[in-house]
Specification:
0% strand; 8 helices; 153 residues; mainly alpha; elongated
Length: 153
Amino acid sequence: MNPWLAPAAVAARLLDPLQPLLLLGLRLWVGWQFLKSGWLKLADWDTTLLLFQQEYRVPLLSPAAAAVAGTAGELLFPVLLTLGLWGRLAAIGLSAVNALAVFAYAHVLLQDGFEAALGQHCLWGLMLLVVAVFGPGRWSIDGWWPAGAGRRY
């Protein structure tokens, strides 16, 4: 082996076993953030409807339809993501929910003083991108599924 590549090989040998843990951590963290938001919307539906009517600017959907779709996405996709069931699709679906949330609330998130809130959405987007690109990892239902079933994590 080329002596210049030895440190990289050592780093890969040390870090590669951490991939399943990292992907699990990403799935749990970002899933929990959206699941909490979905439960909050569901717990006070009247306020949720009011926010979609007066505060959130969702294009193409009525406020009631947007509230139902957004809440459903925040409840369904995090569960799939956390379990690692259809993990890539769950990450893509939750990415769409995240992007729509930023778009619908951009009139607030893009103002001075809201950089941290926008940064949170960017961080969640990056975390979801990692899962979408690399899959949910070995520690997932997708990772345990028989290879013959045509599913890869």
